[in-house]
Design brief:
The chain has 223 residues and is an alpha/beta fold. It has helices at 11-22, 36-42, 62-73, 88-96, 109-120, 128-153, 160-170, 175-182, 186-200, 205-214; strands at 2-7, 27-33, 50-53, 79-83, 101-104. The chain folds into two domains: 2-126, Response regulator (Rossmann fold), CATH 3.40.50; 155-220, Winged helix-like DNA-binding domain superfamily/Winged helix DNA-binding domain (Arc Repressor Mutant, subunit A), CATH 1.10.10.10. The protein has ten helices and five strands. A five-stranded parallel sheet has the order 2-1-3-4-5, with helices on both faces.
Length: 223
């Protein structure tokens, strides 16, 4: 029998969830908590097969805080959020805690049953929207990581003058305009550009502009 901890501050809703879980073959609620704090204190490694957790309880993110505390205590803990709050930020923050799944209150008994069974068998079946949100966030973070890596490897070695030169490119300035602004000859600007291209491992100034904009790093340069 898979033991379940139900964490929900509303007594009526908690009773309903408990009744639903107890009606599912192979599952039984062995602990009920009315707050995230109680849940984190009541949990011990191996004591529950899965934790069914609300999010907004004594605080707006109590369930997420409790999930983090439980997973810190037991990295193998299997937590499923069951909440009425499903905006994008909440979903991403909740899943970042290390939870295995996310369900919205009002879902059917069959949905709860299938998701709990999947989590128990390490075969999480995330709702399509939750899955897409997580994948989009992964891609965003991956892009941010590439931006940081590129900055560390290349841009951090630039001089103040070279950063200003990039700012001129971003503003669409031509070599002659840059030379006039900096009170130097165009040949000097061309020499600086060759050095800059070498540092960034690029071949044209248009590539510099494209790369900076692709990485969203325009704010680091001023002309």
């Amino acid at each position: 029998m898979n033991s379940v901890m139900v964490v929900e501050d509303n007594e009526i809703i908690r009773e309903d969830i408990t009744e639903t879980v107890n009606s599912i073959d192979g599952f039984a609620v062995t602990c009920e908590c009315s707050s995230g704090k109680d849940a984190s204190l009541s949990y011990s490694p191996g004591s529950f097969s899965v934790v069914l957790m609300d999010i907004e309880m004594e605080t707006s993110n109590a369930g997420i805080d409790a999930a983090r505390a439980i997973i810190e205590k037991d990295p193998q803990a299997k937590i499923v959020f069951l909440t009425s709050h499903d905006d994008d930020e909440i979903v991403i923050t909740a899943m970042a805690s290390g939870a295995k799944d996310f369900l919205v209150k009002g879902c059917s008994r069959e949905e709860i049953s299938s998701h709990l069974s999947a989590v128990i068998n390490d075969e999480t079946i995330l709702d399509r929207r939750v899955h897409d949100l997580i994948m989009n966030e992964y891609r965003r973070l991956s892009h941010s990581e590439r931006s940081l890596l590129y900055f560390i490897q290349h841009l951090s070695s630039l001089t103040k003058a070279e950063r200003e030169l990039i700012g001129c490119f971003l503003d669409g300035m031509k070599i002659r305009e840059i030379a006039q602004k900096r009170f130097v000859e165009p040949v000097t600007v061309k020499s600086q550009i060759r050095t800059l291209l070498g540092k960034l491992d690029l071949s044209r100034t248009s590539e510099i502009v494209s790369k900076i904009r692709e990485l969203g790093l325009e704010h680091l340069f001023s002309s």
